[in-house]
């Protein structure tokens, strides 16, 4: 199952048409058709349904497309790692994260200044997916807000890089938008957009528990699987949310961040960096650019 064969499969999966896929791959259509047939015989499954207007992925084909992308990503990451080691901190770093992080701009700027030979590629996914891709080698480094994927793993090394305070994120015309600080219970009658429990499990759990401690359960207007979605819903004026307070430093949308009374641990979220124990020098140098335990 060569890199070229996987690339041909993925291009056809995207184009859904042998002619367009062959043109994009700079080959004629018969060799592409033969390659896909060879792949299907090797896997012993049908990957595509053929029709007069093109092709569509079967359920098995759709599942294989996800894994094929990761296989190619892992292979490419392994090649870049060996080149970095041989060439002295030059090449590509694949960095995964679960949601927008307030220290990203400063971190990326420091990396560009201190390690100009590195190119950092950012990849966003769920907590579990980022942890697994770091574990498998598809990613070199990951930033998580949830430690649960690490609880039973001796294959990853974690380092706390920040503690960010949770604040209320309100539409700019919200009745409490001008306050310096509020109690969380003052939002009991508002519609919320909570983080998705599968994509952002730790933040979702914090929101539920913090609201429970404040004496109410949030009434959900919608659910978002990343911080961009949370921000968009709040900016629309439809609802409120809870998210790391330091995001106000990098967001330009019309959102008011208002601090919350109290010292509950539910109002702090910890960001950790995860890597494999055998991470190369470039990854370790990047981690040196992050002040450990930086409080936000």
Describe the protein's architecture and organization.
With 296 residues, the protein is α/β, with parallel strands linked by helices. The protein has two domains: 3-65, Winged helix-like DNA-binding domain superfamily/Winged helix DNA-binding domain (Arc Repressor Mutant, subunit A); 95-296, 3-Layer(aba) Sandwich (D-Maltodextrin-Binding Protein, domain 2). Helix content is 39%, strand content 23%. The chain is globular. The model has no long low-confidence stretch (mean pLDDT 85).
Write the layout of secondary structure elements.
Elements: H1 3-15, H2 18-25, H3 29-43, E1 48-51, E2 54-57, H4 59-87, E3 91-97, H5 104-114, E4 118-124, H6 127-136, E5 141-144, E6 157-171, E7 181-182, E8 191-192, H7 201-213, E9 219-220, H8 227-235, E10 241-244, E11 255-260, E12 268-275, H9 281-288, E13 294-295
Parallel strand pairs: 3-4, 3-5, 6-13, 7-11, 8-9
Antiparallel strand pairs: 1-2, 5-12, 6-10, 6-11, 6-12
Helix pairs in contact: 1-2, 1-4
């Amino acid at each position: 199952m060569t890199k070229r064969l996987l690339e041909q499969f993925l291009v056809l999966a995207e184009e859904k048409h042998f002619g367009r896929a062959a043109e994009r791959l700079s080959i004629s259509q018969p060799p592409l058709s033969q390659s896909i047939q060879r792949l299907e015989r090797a896997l012993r499954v049908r990957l595509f349904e053929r029709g007069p207007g093109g092709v569509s992925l079967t359920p098995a084909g759709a599942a294989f497309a996800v894994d094929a992308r990761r296989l190619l990503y892992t292979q490419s990451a392994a090649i870049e790692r060996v080149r970095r080691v041989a060439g002295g901190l030059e090449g590509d770093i694949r960095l995964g994260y679960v949601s927008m992080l307030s220290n990203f701009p400063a971190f990326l700027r420091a990396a560009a200044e201190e390690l100009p030979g590195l190119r950092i590629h950012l990849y966003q996914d769920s907590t579990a997916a980022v942890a697994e891709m770091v574990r498998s080698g598809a990613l070199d480094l990951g930033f998580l807000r949830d430690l649960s994927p690490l609880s039973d793993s001796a294959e990853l090394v974690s380092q706390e890089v920040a503690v960010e305070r949770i604040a209320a994120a309100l539409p700019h015309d919200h009745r409490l938008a001008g306050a310096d600080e509020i109690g969380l219970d003052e939002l009991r009658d508002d519609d919320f957009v909570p983080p998705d429990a599968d994509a952002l499990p730790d933040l979702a759990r914090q929101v539920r528990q913090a609201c429970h401690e404040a004496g109410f359960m949030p009434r959900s207007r919608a659910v978002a699987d990343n911080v961009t979605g949370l921000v968009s819903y709040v900016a629309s004026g439809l609802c409120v949310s809870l998210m790391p307070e330091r995001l106000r430093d990098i967001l330009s949308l019309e959102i008011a961040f208002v601090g919350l009374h109290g010292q509950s641990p539910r109002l702090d979220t910890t960001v950790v960096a995860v890597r494999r124990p055998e991470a190369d020098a470039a990854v370790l140098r990047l981690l040196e650019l992050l002040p450990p335990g930086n409080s936000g």
